[in-house]
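Journal club prep, shared notes

We agreed each person brings one worked example of a sequence with its structure written out as tokens. Mine is Glyoxylate/hydroxypyruvate reductase A. I'm keeping it raw so we can talk through how to read the token line rather than staring at a rendered picture. Sequence first:
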Amino acid sequence: MNIIFYHPFFDAQDWLAGMAKRLPQANIRAWQPGDDRPADYALVWRPPYEMLANRRDLKGIFALGAGVDAILEQERQHPGSLPAGVPVIRLEDTGMAQQMDEYALAGVLRYFRRFDEYQLQQQQQNWLPLEPHQQSDFTIGILGAGVLGKSVAQKLVAFGFNVRCWSRSPKQIEHVQSFAGQPQLAAFLDGTRLLINLLPNTPETAGILNRQLFSRLVPGAYLINIARGAHLVEDDLLAMLAQGQLTAAMLDVFVNEPLPSAHAFWRHPRVTITPHIAAVTLPEQAMDQVSANLLRLEAGEQPSGLVDIQRGY
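Then the structure, token by token:
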């Protein structure tokens, strides 16, 4: 069994050593330009076109992240980047759900307890208690009800919040009101005071966080975007903040990363920025899951996290 590895940021030696411990029967190597030696599996993140394009004998391609939008976008722009018929498997959770829970909960409590406004008052030396929000009228809507969206929803329910979710197809999450499909999007948005975006990035969801969507939220609503920057129409967010339709936004992802120094978000008093750190891949958990899925493929079984190329996730 031959495995090739490529990641522009991860330490290749750590992964080679870690995978060798889990799969001692395999030959694992870091892919280098010009390497056309046989390979059964590929572990990748944003692989160069020439790495996979002609490897039609691969049994599986493992995307080393929860999102596969980058690798699928590469295929759309350069057809053939992914060998036809080779299954693509993404990471599921691997410690990311806990991180997303923490980030989302921190953002929700920041806005629910109005800590963002108190921070602005502190800068002005203004001692003024504010009317607290009530959970009864602080409905939280989550766009996306996959592994991460479901985990965040359950965490917020445990804190006593009214939570609803919207996804492409119906999902059942205990104590969470479920909406599905385009016909139910308006009903999902109606009454939502805080919106958390955890959608996959697909051609259908690009730009979904726009003026039209924001206008359907409760006036003075909040936004937390921890999915992809491509979901957000940035100028529409600025316009809605200026109009007061949105009170504040917490953003972890952006169209251009790192965020350009001249970008208006840096200086906006109602925008909180973090540098794409809401949830990062944890190597040990990721290697455990990749190894287990690889062995399932070797046994002729279906792996978890199998990507539907047409849907984009």
